[in-house]
Amino acid sequence: xxxxxxxxxxxxxxxxxxxxxxxxxxxxxxxxxxxxxxxxxxxxxxxxxxxxxxxxxxxxxxxxxxxxxxxxxxxxxxxxxxxxxxxxxxxxxxxxxxxxxxxxxxxxxxxxxxxxxxxxxxxxxxxxxxxxxxxxxxxxxxxxxxxxxxxxxxxxxxxxxxxxxxxxxxxxxxxxxxxxxxxxxxxxxxxxxx
Length: 194
Description:
GO terms for molecular function: DNA binding; sigma factor activity. The protein is mainly α. 69% of the residues lie in helices and 0% in strands. It has 2 domains: 18-120, Orthogonal Bundle (Rna Polymerase Sigma Factor, Chain: A), CATH 1.10.1740; 124-194, Winged helix-like DNA-binding domain superfamily/Winged helix DNA-binding domain (Arc Repressor Mutant, subunit A, Orthogonal Bundle), CATH 1.10.10. It has helices at residues 3-8, 23-31, 35-56, 60-77, 88-109, 126-134, 137-145, 148-159, 164-171, 175-193. It is globular, with a radius of gyration of 20 Å. Residues 1-14 have low confidence and may be disordered.
């Protein structure tokens, strides 16, 4: 057997297959133009991203457009992910959340109100589960006791890291209402923890 033929079936040390890498490493490979790494990143993250966006917007056409814009942005800007201050998945969600806000703005600009969020989620969103799992005890209890409209604002501003304006667009509320609900959420949390 020729040496090249023998080596063709052997995996080189340090050249892990994309499915063996974590998302941060996949992003670094995407930044170098690795299409297989991009496809693996998409395969891993697109199902939960679609569900998470679907919880924010009931219009599946908007969700599909945001998904496409998000992954295009990931392909183009993967090199800008530094890994400091967050995970690759968090970075991906930040891009998607901002693209969703942009989609709502475009829709509002064309005199069509954004579609309402899905009325009854089938299961708790991943960030809610993660928040309750990581924030236990009294804080977790206080979060569970918050009214849904207060929890939505707190989630968008704290977990998703959105500004007041972005939260207002995302939730379809006036900025003043977002500020009021954020203040009420902090007050309720403070009282529950006192």
